[in-house]
Amino acid sequence: MKKSFMIVIVMMAFFLGMTLGLISLYYSGITVLTARILQAVYYLLMAGLSLLMMKISDYSFKDFGIFFHRLWWQLLMGLGIAAAFTIIGVFATGGYEIPTDWAYLIPSQILVGIAEELFWRGLLLKLMGELLHSKRKAIPLNALLFGLWHYPLSQSWVTVILTAFIGLTFAVVRTEYDEDMGIPGLAFAHTLMNVF
User: For the chain, what are the domain ranges?
Assistant: First the structure.
């Protein structure tokens, strides 16, 4: 339990610090190319460190949701989740703007989807469940922190509420369908939602 607590604290502090550092760079007027490179490095670090922490924890990768059995079912469920949230988003915002930079958007959002799901619904959800002695008790805390984590970049409480709700849904799906819905399905949904 002490190891899990240390992993959660170190990872949260590290990524909060990195997030605030990146935001200060964004607002200092860096070029689009530099921002894209920094974002890629940030998410590669997030994915890599999440996998490393999973490896040194007392659990297997499968315990964190990294499994590929029933992959087609996971992807189909991910598609359904993404479609539902995209439709809700279109109605809530009053429209949809067609992206123009697909060559950057798709690979970058695949990386974001994988890294954030490894970190939030993989590593942190599992370890928070251990620390709180209940996976279900960890769900609202994980969702709240996920929502708040989006505030510094968006500077919008609406974004915090929406991302917390999305995080809540993803955490519930991950917890309630623990043996069937893993990180691959959630990362697919997350990527589709970010792209569309």
Answer: 2-195
